[in-house]
Write a sequence for this structure.
């Protein structure tokens, strides 16, 4: 059952904070949100583009998505980031999403756009920039929040070229050090953005964000603001 909802203006950015008393309620609400976003996008412009996050909470949500009522042939799947590891490595976001969800539904393979991170950060970022060159505004971006305030693979203390859609990441503070990430500017080019934030370890990052400190997550600024789904963190 949803506990509280708050809307805040932080550094000229609207954020809607939805706190859940049970993880299952967060998962259910997220699935409904995704299903509705897909329905509206397909009705409005004939397709649905979604950017996926890695992590345990997104995985639990992805496992529920095969049950929704949607036209899978209209879905186009992208990734916010991935690790520079072999495609079959268990820590690849693309493998997790495939095993939890994508292999169970009829999205055409040509519409699932993995980051070719196994090619190394520079070459993979270049390739993904080409993939995204013809892609306009996303319909929905899913993101997580790290204990240090990072999101996708945009880490505190790092800089990146926001004129690009995808950038190479070196020296990530958590392994593996080499990754590819969409930039804050490109992630902001979406009709909707949802952050999933679960666990007491995220408390400091949430507090910093709500105080207006410039953590990477706060740099995601879509025109319609962001939704933050929370469990296990106090507001």
């Amino acid at each position: 059952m949803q506990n509280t909802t708050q809307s805040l203006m932080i550094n000229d950015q609207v954020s809607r904070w939805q706190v859940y008393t049970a993880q299952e309620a967060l998962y259910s609400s997220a699935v409904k949100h995704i299903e509705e976003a897909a329905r509206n996008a397909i009705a409005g412009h004939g397709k649905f583009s979604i950017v996926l996050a890695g992590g345990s909470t997104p995985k639990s949500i992805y496992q529920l998505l095969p049950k929704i009522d949607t036209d899978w042939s209209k879905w186009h799947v992208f990734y916010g980031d991935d690790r520079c590891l072999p495609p079959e490595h268990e820590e690849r976001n693309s493998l997790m999403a495939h095993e939890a969800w994508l292999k169970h539904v009829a999205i055409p393979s040509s519409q699932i756009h993995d980051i070719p991170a196994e090619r190394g950060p520079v070459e993979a970022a270049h390739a993904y920039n080409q993939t995204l060159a013809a892609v306009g505004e996303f319909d929905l971006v899913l993101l997580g929040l790290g204990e240090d305030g990072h999101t996708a693979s945009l880490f505190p203390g790092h800089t990146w070229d926001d004129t690009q859609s995808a950038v190479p990441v070196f020296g990530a503070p958590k392994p593996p050090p080499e990754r590819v990430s969409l930039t804050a500017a490109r992630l902001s080019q979406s009709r909707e953005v949802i952050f999933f934030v679960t666990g007491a370890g995220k408390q400091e990052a949430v507090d910093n964000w709500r105080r207006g400190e410039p953590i990477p997550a706060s740099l995601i600024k879509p025109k319609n603001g962001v939704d933050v789904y929370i469990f296990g963190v106090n507001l």
Notes: The chain is about 25% helix and 25% strand.
